[in-house]
Write a structure and sequence with these properties.
5 helices; about 65% helix; mainly alpha
């Protein structure tokens, strides 16, 4: 638990809002693979468990990015205001907002995130097909 907590305070993991989930995943994976540690091969269990936790963190970050991508794509394609409002045909447009509007910076972030996520998935698929 201490290894996972300390590793979560490293600069590459500190700013994630789901750090608690990362720590829990790391501990869970350590418990799962504790029997695989071979003291004859290595005398450093600290390094063994740190690597397990590190890769658990990376998997959690990947899962959370995928979920964020799904949220952004859904909000891009789904008009939430229209689906949840009580708008009727006789209502004026100024009373209801029919589109989801973000400020320019938020929309740029969302667009860049979606673009980079899709590009990274394409490159991973190409690497997998090449092997």
């Amino acid at each position: 638990m201490k290894i996972a907590t300390r590793l979560s305070h490293k600069p590459n993991f500190i700013n994630y809002s789901f750090r608690d989930e990362m720590i829990c995943d790391g501990i869970e994976n350590c418990m799962q693979y504790i029997d695989n540690f071979n003291p004859e091969k290595s005398t450093n269990p600290f390094a063994y468990f740190t690597q397990i936790i590190y890769f658990a963190f990376l998997r959690r970050i990947d899962k959370e990015k995928k979920q964020l991508y799904i949220k952004f794509k859904m909000s891009e394609r789904l008009n939430i205001d229209e689906a949840t409002s009580d708008r009727q045909d006789h209502d004026s447009d100024r009373d209801f907002n029919d589109t989801i509007k973000n400020d320019a910076d938020s929309q740029d972030y969302i667009d860049n995130f979606i673009k980079s996520f899709e590009e990274s998935r394409k490159s991973k698929n190409k690497k997998a097909k090449a092997q």
